[in-house]
Write a structure and sequence with these properties.
192 residues; alpha/beta; Rossmann fold; 4-stranded parallel sheet; 4-stranded mixed sheet
Length: 192
């Protein structure tokens, strides 16, 4: 492989999507493959922007057809998966490929992509209370769902040490966070 896959990892609400959106704006020449999900579309989202929204039946068919580089059931009811074709094509063509994934996806990808072709960046926040506030303010969720996400958050924070880099995303400092991520990407692509 000649290219590199950069995966942005972190707990729900850490700002992974915001970092990815900003990178897409600033670096349109990178490859941003779609993930598929069965979760409902949020306000302002469009199919084909960051996610390809699918029914559970469509997603299960994709699993059988080996459509995904990784897939997982997240928060016990929604399927998420990274569509494999554009990633493998981009790696062969020497492209810089960037995608956000959750911890389950991170584990799956590390088993399938060679370490020299993969760079992992963990996006974190200054404290867990801030993360909980972000989750609550982002969308209306039930107390049961909030408890599930808190449990996931604690497990995910423990995995930061498994990533190549860690970048803190402070509230109101997205530009700084994105600059740090861009520097990592630029430095790593020079190593190819």
């Amino acid at each position: 492989m000649k290219g590199k896959l950069f995966i942005i990892v972190g707990p729900s609400g850490s700002g992974k999507s915001s970092v990815l959106h900003k990178l897409m704006e600033l670096k349109p020449n990178y490859v941003y493959p779609l993930s598929a999900t069965t979760r409902p579309m949020r306000e302002g989202e469009k199919d084909g922007d960051i996610y390809h929204f699918m029914t559970k039946e469509e997603f299960k068919k994709g699993i059988k057809e080996d459509m995904f580089l990784e897939w997982a059931i997240v928060h016990q009811d929604n399927y998420y998966g990274l569509i494999k074709g554009p990633i493998m094509k981009g790696l062969k063509e020497g492209k810089t490929i960037i995608r956000e994934v959750d911890i389950q996806g991170f584990d799956s990808i590390r088993k399938k992509i060679a370490p020299e072709d993969l760079v992992t960046i963990f996006v974190t926040v200054p404290n867990k209370e801030e993360l909980i506030e972000r989750i609550i303010s982002r969308a209306t969720i039930s107390l049961d769902e909030l408890e599930k996400r808190k449990k996931s958050m604690h497990r995910e924070f423990n995995r930061a040490k498994d990533c190549d880099y860690m970048v803190e995303n402070k509230e109101g400092k997205l530009e700084e966070t994105v600059k740090k991520v861009m520097k990592i990407i630029e430095d790593e692509t020079k190593k190819v």
